[in-house]
Amino acid sequence: MKSYLNKIFKIKDYFRRDTLSIYYNGLLNDHFSEFIVSLAKHESSQAVKKKLSFLMVEVFQNIVRYSNEKKKNDCFGVRNLEDSIHIFSSNKIGLTAYEFLSTRLTELNSLDENQLKELYRDILKNGAFTEKGGGGLGLIEMARKSKNPIQKDFQKLSSDSYQFSYQIDLAKLKGETLQLIEKNKIEENIEIYSMLRKNDVMFFYNGNFSKENIKALLAILKANIPKYSRKKNVNYFRMFHTGVELIQNISRHGKKVNNVLHGSFCIFKNKDGFYMSTGNFLKSGDYAEMEEFISKINAYSVGELTTQYLKALKENSFIENNSAGVGLIDIRRYNHSKIDFEIHNIDNGIYLNMGIFIPKYI
Amino acid sequence: MEHFGQTLINLDTQNNVLSISGISMMEDAIDFYKDVKDQIDNYFKTKHQLLTLVFELSYFNSSSAKQFIQLLSKLEGGKGKAIWKYPKDHIIMYDRGRELEILVDVPFEFKGI
After folding, report:
1. Is B44 inside any structural domain?
2. How many distinct structural domains can be found in chain B?
3. Which of A43, A49, A137, A351 could form a Cys-Cys staple with A344, CB 3.0–4.6 A?
4. pLDDT tens-place string over residues A159-185
């Protein structure tokens, strides 16, 4: 399973210019999108927060509006670069939606700010513009708010279906109009996101592990735990608990760089189960201790783990340091899997990648 | 979103019950449970009666487990008991209560709800 750790390190490298990266490939619903919006919002300047929320919600709604597939192939991504934000989305659409979207987006992209404003007013005044429940109006709003052309791509999948990808580019400074497309072309994101999909990545977050963001991450995790048919509570518990302990481990051991606790959290999904991994810079001096500890708990047999958990819980209960030991033994014992870890020496110090396989059923 | 992961604490001095319910998954459990520990200490300073600690949780993380040991240890020496309420079909939440019972010298009652 260590191969997943190699994957995650490569994936992280694709996003090395980003201050925040979110990728999600799965079902979207309103409740869930609220947490992704919250995650992205925390990382943005006050000036663009409102605009960003609007644009993200609009992108989510478009996925629901135009997607005609039962077996979803939706994916959604946000990338914050130094001075710009890029919201990407891709989903399967039918012929009618294709005809509407390709024509409308080409038309909108040819209009300047005043023409867009005029068109928007016209539609509000005269009504009908689209047969798809107002989606056209949303597209105009997106173009107006982002102050950039909407990047788009249509891949023909069959005679009546297309993979539709598009991207909204937004400057971080309020009111500023930038030609941001050169900085983050949609082709680059189509390639990255299809690579993530091929590598079983269901969710990827790379950014600040502030308290608010951790809360949103855990809510996203909770919303994505599958409905198990057997031993529902046990399997649900294993997945949720593993995520909680791994994510909180970053805030315990992660090292802040420029006052930001930067890290990554990734969920892979394959037919046998899930693989969760985290990545973060380590506080100096923590590495040797961490390596020794993980090697020790990996050496325990599954049968020994509960005894070791109880021993560690008893010994650590009165040590006021929120140390991670008990949590790691706990996730190892519930998943019957070893904890994988890898160390990389990079620019800002020692970077730890850690992960564990969560079998679908045990 | 504000209700996600909320832990509810209630000290009922009339009935001598301290209850912890909901989900206990904060990363800084030490800070969160400091007040609860103070409440128990104050209770024993002012009341000389047994205290019942009622847990009714659907999830708790490892940081919380350590704090539960501390809270329970305040009842050791015949100062109270624990009632562990767990969702009836949730074997893990039952087991996690049993594990706490092993580690402290406090009588436990288990109630599947």
Report:
1. yes
2. 1
3. A351
4. 999 999 999 998 887 666 656 666 789
